[in-house]
Structure formats: C-alpha cells, structure tokens
Amino acid sequence: MSDADVSDADVSDTDVSGTGGADTSDVRRPTITITVDGDACCAMGRCAATEPDLFDQDPATGTVVLLDPTPSSPELHASARLCADLCPCGAITVTEH
C-alpha cells in the first residue's frame, strides 16, 4: 500500500474506544445512594468542606444537608465514600448498587 493509499483510507470504521468494538451500551455503571441521619449529625462540617457538591450545612443548626443523594460521577462516588469515612458521628451512609 502506498502513502497515498494510506492517507485516502477510510478510517470511519476504526475503533478508537478501547473496547475492541464491543457494544458497551448495556454496560452497567456502578451507582450509589447516599443517606444522612440528621439526628446523628454532630455538625462538624467535614462533609460540606470536603465535598460541597454533595453536602451543605443547615445555617441554623449546622447539621448536614444532602444536596445529591444519587450522584452519577465516579469522582463524586469516591468523595461520598471519603465523607462517610471522615464523619465522626457516622451520620453518612453510602450504599453501592
């Protein structure tokens, strides 16, 4: 094959996804559900300081406010797990599905 043949080659069927051409439309992505126990919360604020996209604090009581119980981003999954580990009161639970 000459250089001209290579440059004119149709590359529209070339798989660059890294899946080997496999159909990944049915691949199940991990999901999580976050729950908080407001009664157990001791208002330390570690969760809100660590991941403000998921947690805030009630301005009157300082207790946790959950902003997104089912985040889709794997990065937020990791942050939610970290916040649950950091919570000194055990008020945050992350359930994997």
Question: What attributes characterize this protein structure?
Answer:
iron, alpha+beta, two-stranded antiparallel ribbon, 3 helices, elongated, iron-sulfur, 24% helix, 97 residues, Alpha-Beta Plaits, Ferredoxin, electron transport, 4 strands
**Major sheet: arrangement of strands:** 1-4
Kindly provide the name of the CATH class of the domain at 41-97: Alpha Beta
The CATH topology of the domain at 41-97 comes to: Alpha-Beta Plaits
Q: What is the multimeric organization of the chains shown?
A: single chain
Count of beta strands: 4
Backbone structural class: alpha+beta
Q: Biggest β-sheet, characterized?
A: 2 strands, antiparallel
Helix coverage percent of residues?
Answer: 10-25%
Tell me the β content. 15-25%
Topology as a string of helices (H) and strands (E):
HEHEEHE
Please tell me what the overall shape is.
Answer: elongated
Account of the 3D structure:
By secondary structure, this protein is an alpha+beta fold. It has a domain of about 55 residues: Alpha-Beta Plaits (2-Layer Sandwich). Helices cover about 25% and strands about 15% of the residues. The strands form two sheets. A two-stranded antiparallel sheet has the order 1-4. Strands 2-3 form a two-stranded antiparallel ribbon. The radius of gyration is 22 Å and the shape is elongated. The protein starts with a helix and ends with a strand. Keywords: 3Fe-4S, Electron transport, Iron, Iron-sulfur, Metal-binding, Transport. It comes from Streptomyces lutosisoli. It holds the Pfam family Fer4_13.
